[in-house]
Amino acid sequence: MNDLGEFLRVRRAQLTPEEVGLAASGARRVAGLRREEVAVLAGVSADYYTRLEQGRERNPSGQVVDAIARALRLGQNGRWYAYQLAGLAPKPETPSEEVAPALRQLMDAFDEAVAYIINRRLDVLACNALAAALLSPLEDLRPMMTNLFHDPAARDLFDDWPSVARESVEALRLASPDNESVQQLIGELLASSNEFAELWKQHGVNTLGSTVKTFNHPVAGRLTLTYQTFDIQSAPGQSLLVGTPAQESLEALKRLT
């Protein structure tokens, strides 16, 4: 079984017949949909889908991947990830680790928001003063994924640590194909954290996008920020995260300065 086949198998096991409009018929030996049911929903032969899942068919067309993505309810991000695994997505540009001076200037202009630049590994490459103060309980600001699973301060800082960890793992998976640095980080975390390994086995795929995070900061207290994520077109692999405070968190954010 190859990476695409493993992804399809796990996501198939997470769906029930009722979720895709099929009648459940009799007891099932394993969880989820049967291969034959996915094949019917996708409009391909059961033999072809079986070979694809087992890794014996390695060159599906974009039309087939689209149909299977719809059948498995993968959503836009899951569909794009399947395209990457099938070798149908364009190769990503070489990621940049240098943060442009203009971006640093932009981050510093946010005087009532936290802002930082991350790469595909979710490392923090640069941040404004508010972000540095917010994340100051962490031992090392840069390696955010390592922090989440190995720095005890992260579990205190992030109020809903399980959700933050899951969302971060899903974003890391989306960035993982064809990126040697991300693959290396994944290997390190799989070897060192059972919690990461459990989340990784779920094969969730998502972008960081828009989310709400609540922090328990030793100086500022409890504060809630709404995050938006922006891809930086001029720097492949970099994203700008901006967190703006809820009204009740404005005073807490000011205490960070």
Automatic annotation (TrEMBL):
- Segments forming domain HTH cro/C1-type: 27-72
Q: Which one Pfam family would you cite for this protein?
A: MLTR_LBD
Superkingdom of the source species: Bacteria
Q: Which Gene3D superfamilies match?
A: 3.30.450.180, lambda repressor-like DNA-binding domains (1.10.260.40)
Q: Which SUPFAM superfamilies match?
A: lambda repressor-like DNA-binding domains
What InterPro entries does this protein map onto? Cro/C1-type_HTH, Lambda_DNA-bd_dom_sf, MLTR_LBD
- UniProt protein name: Helix-turn-helix transcriptional regulator
